[in-house]
Write a structure and sequence with these properties.
This protein has about 700 residues and is an alpha+beta fold. Helices cover about 50% and strands about 10% of the residues. The protein is built from 24 helices and 16 strands. A hairpin with a 5-residue loop joins strand 3 and strand 4. The chain is globular, with a radius of gyration of 28 Å. The protein binds adenosine-5'-diphosphate and magnesium ion (MG). Magnesium ion (MG) binds next to loops.
Length: about 700
């Protein structure tokens, strides 16, 4: 344990390090920037940069980079050396305040959705002083935002920071109404639970689909899958355990609070949960976690699969986004308290979330939309594509009672009246056990379960923060003008429950009947990424983001373009990979297998005489599947070519969804059938069984 406390954050330029290494005055001014968002003047920046450089060099760094998250969802870095030449032909290690605060990466290699064309070709990165700098593999990484010269966000982080500012502003207004005027800032907190698969690297290397697309595009189901549920919380295998130990140590050095780890439902699937922290830091840490996971897995001879659906027929991977709001004093605004007054405030915050999720179902769905996640959401798996909320019986009963204007009869026979009686504490058990809900209240936080395992959680949190900020804005407007606060509060809460209770669903989200029920309630069911994206630019959504200064219309249009293009590109790569596999590996291998079967038939016939034989039957089946696979591949090829005639990315995305993906499914079926018939020795790829049960 002492080891951990010593190494924890050892590679982070943390508050403690800053306090120790910066002159008092500089430290104070930097704190003003971090806490209050004040501009850092260049003298201070120079002092900070110098201290940062000395610290980094002492800890083995030779280069620095502005670390940022372009709209692709991965992180980007371009390494620059600290070395500067001197006039006498030597070098010194230098790093200026200017280099700390601002960088100019070549923006043309990152997607901009047309933003760069409209403004300047270049982009710049700017230090996000609220997220600590850290050293990763000898490189000092400075967390930054990435913008165009016109100031348009070209990354995931800028909007997230703006959304945190929006919810801060509106939440403070509401807190003031409850007499909490002393709170100076409100921050959203996030703890993302990351799911992933581990497979043996030597097997991974034999699968083009995993290498090019991150998921298997073919694969016949293994005799044993996850039906016995014997993997979940089962004993962790020694190799995986060694990986997890190493991973934790790496993450701790970087200040990532990795806490729990366990096996997940599917074989070879695991989960890592960090201790929650402030949203923007949590987003940075999650990006780091994914990167380090891949690296450490490789060191252990394994490949870490972060794709949402690496294996058909086996549970996919998500990223449960635990979210709450807390004050600068660390009080969780969703944690039921001890006084009635406190609880009226919590109830209002809960209502703000309920209203936000109902009003902006589409944005929540969009925030997690990707070609990969389409295989989970709406595909009969956790969670469905329909956004709904699970509140648990306790809270639901309380809300029902408030709405009906009757007394809430809890187990203790307590009377429930807002602002008068105490809200009961919600026992965790009663709130956390609906695994099918996409958005669940879990006692003192919400768990948004739709995000996919591979993507950044920046977008989801930006939508959450902004939509809740909007509810709070409306609430504050109404309550600030009220003659009688208590009455107005009561009316507001009742009305909010009545207007938005359709979003609350405590039943089984996987059940067929829910789809019909949700439709009856008027909830949206956006099954695919193109369906979801078609709502991004709806008037109410543009208005929301513009009002809270999170995205301008131009920025949203750019994002629409980037997301749509990215969907098309992903599907296109998958389709091309399938064709490559079928033509280069599968059909040639099956041709050899056919020949062997045919030879066997002939030889048998020579001995036994003509007649039916096992090999002949198999050969006929194989031959039929080969023909069907070949035809399906030809159709896919032709349709991919016709795709070039589609004008614009929107049309193309629908074309990929409606034509290419069905073609891909049609191709997969006969190939999987062949894998079932074929000799294991002849099949060109490791099987699902090998992959899923290969790590011991
Ligand atoms: P479990 O679901 O395993 O019983 P917890 O409910 O404690 O465990 O936590 C699940 C995840 O939720 C963890 O990543 C944790 O850090 C996160 N979490 C807990 N409290 C909060 C909060 N107030 N804000 C954001 N995330 C939180
Ligand atoms: Mg969870």
């Amino acid at each position: 344990m002492s080891m951990v406390t010593e190494t924890f954050g050892s590679m982070v330029f943390s508050d403690a390090v800053m306090r120790e290494r910066l002159p008092k005055d500089t430290y104070k001014q930097l704190q003003r920037t971090i806490k209050g968002g004040h501009r850092l003047n260049s003298d201070v920046a120079n002092v900070v940069a110098n201290a940062l450089k000395d610290w980094a060099i002492e800890n083995g760094a030779t280069h620095f980079t502005h670390w940022f998250q372009p709209m692709t969802g991965i992180t980007a870095e371009k390494h620059d050396s600290f070395i500067s030449p001197t006039s006498d032909g030597k070098v010194i290690m230098e790093f200026s305040g200017k280099e700390l605060i601002r960088g100019e990466p070549d923006a043309s290699s990152f997607p901009s959705g047309g933003l760069r064309a409209t403004f300047e070709a270049r982009g710049y990165t700017a230090w996000d002083a609220t997220s600590y700098a850290f050293i990763k593999e000898g490189v000092l990484c400075i967390p930054t935002v990435f913008c165009s010269y016109g100031g348009e966000a070209l990354d995931q982080k800028t909007a997230l920071l703006r959304s945190m500012e929006a919810i801060n502003k509106q939440a403070l207004r509401v807190l003031k109404l409850f007499g909490n005027g002393d709170v100076t800032s409100v921050k959203t907190t996030v703890g993302p639970e990351q799911e992933y698969f581990l497979v043996d690297e030597s097997l991974y290397d034999k699968r083009k689909d995993l290498i090019y697309t991150g998921r298997t595009l073919f694969g016949f189901r293994p005799p044993k899958g996850q039906e016995l549920d014997d993997h979940y919380f089962g004993a962790i295998k020694p190799r995986v355990l060694a990986f997890m130990k190493d991973l934790n140590e790496e993450l701790w050095k970087l200040g990532v609070l990795a806490k729990t780890e366990h096996n997940e439902v599917a074989p070879a699937q695991h989960e890592l949960a960090p201790i929650f922290t402030i949203s923007n830091i949590a987003v940075d840490h999650n990006q780091l976690t994914m990167e380090i996971m891949r690296k450490v897995a490789k060191r252990h001879g394994m490949a870490c699969l972060l794709h949402e659906k690496p294996f058909a027929g086996v549970n996919g991977s998500g990223k449960h986004n635990n979210w709450s709001i807390s004050t600068d004093g660390g009080a969780n605004l969703l944690e039921p308290g001890d006084t009635p007054y406190e609880n009226a405030q919590i109830l209002l915050f809960l209502c703000a979330v309920i209203k936000a999720v109902d009003d902006y179902q589409d944005l929540l769905r969009i925030s997690v939309a990707s070609a990969g996640n389409d295989h989970r959401l709406g595909a009969n798996e956790a969670p469905p594509a329909i956004v709904s909320m699970f509140l648990g019986t306790d809270l639901s009963e309380i809300l029902d009672a408030i709405e009906a204007g009757v007394q809430y009869d809890s187990k203790e026979k307590e009377l429930m009246k807002i602002g008068v009686h105490t809200l009961p504490k919600f026992p965790r058990d009663s709130t956390d056990r609906n695994r099918t809900s996409p958005f669940a209240f879990t006692g003192n936080k919400f768990e948004f379960r739709m995000p996919g395992s591979a993507s950044s959680i920046a977008c989801a949190n930006t939508v959450l923060n902004t939509s809740v900020a909007e509810s709070l804005r409306q609430f504050a407007d109404e309550l600030e003008g009220a003659a009688d606060f208590q009455t107005a509060l009561h009316d507001l809460i009742r009305r909010t429950i009545r207007e938005h209770k359709r979003i609350i669903f405590n039943g089984d989200g996987y059940d067929e009947s829910w789809v019909a029920e949700a439709e009856r309630r008027g909830l949206m069911n956006l099954r695919t990424t193109p369906d979801a994206l078609s709502h991004l630019l709806d008037g109410k959504n543009v208005e929301l983001f513009e009002r809270h200064k999170v995205f301008s219309r131009t920025e949203l249009e750019a994002r629409y373009e980037v997301f749509t293009e990215s969907y098309c590109k992903v599907v296109n790569i998958e389709a091309m990979t399938m064709l490559d596999m079928v033509h280069k590996d599968v059909l040639p291998a099956m041709s050899r297998q056919s020949r062997a079967l045919a030879d066997a038939c002939l030889q048998k016939a020579a001995v036994l005489g003509e007649g039916e034989c096992y090999e002949k039957t198999v050969l006929a089946r194989l031959n039929s599947a080969m023909s069907r696979a070949y035809d399906a591949a030809r159709k896919l090829e032709g349709d991919l070519l016709s795709g070039k005639e589609q004008e614009g990315s929107t049309k193309l995305s629908y074309y990929y969804r409606d034509v290419i993906i069905p073609d891909m499914n049609a191709l997969r079926a006969p190939v999987d059938e062949m894998e079932m018939i074929a000799d294991a020795e002849v099949w060109p790829y490791p099987s699902y069984g090998d992959l899923l049960f290969g790590v011991r």
